[in-house]
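Protein modeling request. Please complete all fields; requests missing the sequence field cannot be processed.
Requester role: graduate student
Desired output: 3D structure, token encoding
Chains: 1
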Amino acid sequence: MMATKITVKDHGSIQVEGEFEVYDLKGKKFDLTGKQTIYLCRCGHSKNKPFCDGAHKAANFVSEINAK
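Delivered output (68 residues):
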């Protein structure tokens, strides 16, 4: 079983790699068949939430996250 790796990208999305499932608040699973990597929106501007569509670039989203 592959571990799940989550990377918070500067000025962009959250990258999720490995084995994972994503559900909405009602418990319905998103169809991610065949996907080993996805990108989740952090900026709030994506038209495909919860997934990133690159809208952070046009919105000039700024956020740097560093582990302590």
